[in-house]
Design brief:
Elements (H helix, E strand, L loop, with lengths): L1 E10 L10 E10 L2 E7 H7 L4 E12 L1 E3 L9 H4 L6 H4 L11 H14 L2 E7 L8 H15 L2 E8 L9 H6 L3 H11 L7 H18 L4 E7 L7 H14 L2 E6 L3 H11 L3 H7 L7 E5 L5 H10 L2 E4 L1 H6 L7 H7 L3 E3 L12 H11 L12 H7 L2 H6 L17 E5 L1 H4 L9 H8 L5 E6 L2 E5 L2 E2 L4 H11 L12 H13 L17
Parallel strand pairs: 1-4, 5-6, 6-7, 7-8, 8-9, 9-10, 10-11, 11-12
Antiparallel strand pairs: 1-2, 2-3, 4-13, 13-14, 14-15, 15-16
This protein binds zinc ion.
Zinc ion binds next to loops.
Length: about 500
Amino acid sequence: MEYLVRGQFVLTMQQHLGADGIIRDGAVYVSGKNIIEVGPYKDLKAAYPTAAVIGSPRFWVMPGFVNAHQHGKGLTNFQLGGLDDCFEISRFSPEPLASIDPYIDTLYGCMRMIESGVTTCIHYNSSRGPSSYETDVRDRMRAYRDSGMRVSFGLDIRNRNHLVYGDEQFIKTLPSRLKETVVEKYSRSRTLAPDDYFSLVKKLSNDVRENGQERLKLFLTPAGPQWCTEDLLRAIRRASDERDLGLQMHVLETKYQRSYFSSVYGKTAIEWLNDLDFLTPRLTLAHGVWLNRNDIQLVANKGSALVHNPSSNLRLRSGMAPLPLFYKAGMTLAVGLDSSPLNDDSDMLQEARLSANLQRVPGAGSGLVPLKEIFRMATINGMKVLGWAEIAGALEPGKQADLILLDSRRLSAPYLAPHQNPIDALIYRGKADDVDTVMIGGELLYQGKKHIRLDRKSIHKKLKESIGPPSPRKSEGPEADLLPHLHRFFASWDQDPAVPFYKFNSVE
Ligand SMILES: [Zn+2]
C-alpha cells in the first residue's frame, strides 16, 4: 500500500530539520513498510498523486509512543484485587487475586496500548512460576504477534530474596507456626532456575532468528540486583553479549533496596553492578529512584540508559526520581508505564505530563528537562533503549512507518495561541483519547478510533470469560498473619540516615 499521511503538523523528530523537526501542513509518504519521503503536503501530493491520503489539517502526525517499561498486564493489579501498599508489601495480598489467561490478558494490554498510540513496548515478563514459564511466554509472544505491536520481549529471572531483602534474617523473626507456611509458600523462585532459563534463552533466540516475528526482539530482564546472585548476573551478561540481546533490570526502585545494598555490601547497588561489569550500553535501568549523585554519574559514564516510571513510583510509594539530575549527567532517558499507571489507564501523554510536572522543584534557579526532551523520552529515545532505533522511530526516509495521528480538535479548542509549539501543547493538553490512527511498519492497525486487526468486543468478551474467580480464601494462608511482620521489618529500615535530596518543601 501507498499512503500519504497528512497533518497540520508533522512532528518528524528529525533534529536537523530545525524548528524542532516540525513541518507545517506536512505529510509522510509511506510505501509498503517504509517512509520514503517527508515534506510539505502540497509537494508530496504532486509527487505521489495516487497514494491514499490519511489525515487532514485536523490531525497532528507524530512517531508512535514507546512504553519502555511495562509487564504486559492488560488488567491492573488493582482490578485483579491486589493489595494497595508500598512496593515491597503489595504482593502479599490476604485476598487472593483473580486468575487470568496470559494470552488474552496480554492481547487486551496491547489493544489498550494501540488505542493510546503506543507502537512499541518492552514486555518485561512476570512469570507465574517455573512450571508454566515457557507456555506463558509463548502465549504472550503470540499475543504481541496477533496485535501487530513492536515488542522487545524480556525473559525474567530471579534466584534469591524471594520474600524480602534478606530472607534468612526475616524468617528467623517469625513465630514458628508462621515460619513453616511462609517458607513453604515463598521460599521457591517464581521463575525458571538458571540452567533452564539459559536453555530457554537459547531455544527462543534461535526460534526468533530463524522463523521469528519481524516485530519482536528478545531481551533479558533479570528482576533486579537484590533478586539475582552475582553468578547469575555474570551469566546473563555473557548471554547478552553472545546473542546480542538487550538487557533491562529494575534498579533502586525503592529506598529499602538502597538500604539493603549499603547494609549488606557496604556499597550502592550501582557500584555493586559496576564491580560485576554489568553496566553496559546494552543495559537499561528501570526506575532508578534512589540513585545517588555518584551512581548517576557512573551510569551516565558507562552509557547505560534509564526508564522513568513516575506514576508507578508514586502509586507504589517508591518516591520521585531526580529526573533533572539524570538529564544533566547525560543519561539516555525513556518513559514507561510499568503496568501500574496513575489512573489505571495506559496514557503515555499523561505520563509525559507527569514527568514534566514532577520535576518542577520550587525556585527559578532549578534546571529542568525541556519539554521537547520529555517528548523524545516518550518516543524516539524509547526506540533507542529498546533496540529498534535503526528500524523505526523518527519520521524520516529509510525508517519503517511507525506513526500515529492525533485529532487536534480537543487540544486546540476553542483557541490555542498559534505560537505555542505543538510538542508543548501535546505534553500539557494531550490525552490518549486524542489518538485517532496508528500505523506500525506501514500497516494500519487503528483508524478513526477503530481497530483493524483486533476486535474490541470479542477481546472484552474472551477476557471476561477467562477471568477465573479467585481461589477460595484459605483460612490458613499466611499473608494476613505475615503483614504485620513485614511492616515491622521494613519500618525498622526507615531509620536509614540517607537524607532525601529531592525536596518539595520544608516543615521547619
Ligand atoms: Zn516494573
